[in-house]
UniProtKB/TrEMBL annotation:
Domain of life: Bacteria
UniProt keyword Membrane, yes or no: no
SUPFAM superfamilies: Nitrile hydratase alpha chain
The keyword ATP-binding appears for this protein: no
The protein, known as: Nitrile hydratase
Originating species: Litoreibacter albidus
Pfam families: NHase_alpha
NCBIfam families assigned to the protein according to its UniProt record, in alphabetical order: nitrile_alph
Any one Gene Ontology molecular-function term assigned to this protein's record: transition metal ion binding
Assigned keywords, A-Z: Metal-binding
């Protein structure tokens, strides 16, 4: 299954990546969003500054948020237990509010590997991982992750022993999953910040493993 992690853009004659102009007519939903936003500002329910601050906060979300949560769970057994018991509350402890959705953390062990998918669309813990990769949203991944997950993992370079139990979790509109990957060997002396650098986006989806030190 193709899962290219790079964007390839056609070059213009000047050598710059070509981007199609985004100046077409507004869609119905874009027009509605503008109208509602302007009405909320006019009525004093929100300010333009508050809206822009929320947009900036959304743009800043990245896998580094999830990596910080994982690194703390690796070094703080009590936090790990709270994360596995209630992922939403544990994430909020660290300042990451996933909104009304319920976050479920599932742990990889020596005998269990977890894989995350959204079979209907692209439900994803964006507050912790940022925007989902393009391949996560494809129909091919969404169907094959359920139908033949071991084959999919092989294509990502993850070969599991036949004795490993593979669990596939289907995200929904009100429930998100994040994988707590197994801590790599040889990391006992590393700081929390150094550990966070070993946590990849794919390891928190289950299509990858944490990096070796």
């Amino acid at each position: 299954m193709p899962h290219d992690h790079h964007d390839h853009d056609h070059l213009s004659p000047s050598g710059h990546p070509y981007r199609q102009d985004n100046d077409g007519a507004l869609t119905y939903w874009q027009t509605m969003e503008i109208a509602i936003r302007e009405l909320m500002i006019e009525k004093g329910e929100l300010s333009a500054a508050q809206i822009q601050a929320q947009i900036d906060a959304m743009d800043e979300r990245s896998p580094a948020n999830g990596a910080a949560v994982v690194a703390r769970a690796w070094t703080d057994p009590d936090f790990r237990n709270r994360l596995l018991a209630n992922g939403s509350d544990a994430a909020r402890e660290m300042g990451f509010d996933i909104g009304p959705m319920h976050l479920v953390a599932v742990e990889n062990t020596a005998h269990i590997h977890n894989l995350i998918v959204c079979t209907l669309c692209s439900c994803y813990p964006r507050n912790l991982l940022g925007l989902p990769p393009d391949w996560y949203k494809t129909r091919e991944y969404r169907s094959r992750a359920v139908r033949e997950p071991r084959a999919v993992l092989r294509e990502f370079g993850v070969e599991l022993p036949v004795t490993t139990t593979l669990r596939v979790h289907d995200s929904t509109a009100d429930m998100r999953y994040i994988v707590l990957p197994a801590r790599p060997a040889g990391t006992d002396g590393l700081s929390v910040d150094a550990l966070a650098k070993l946590v990849t986006r794919d390891s928190m989806i289950g299509t990858g493993l944490a990096k070796a030190p």
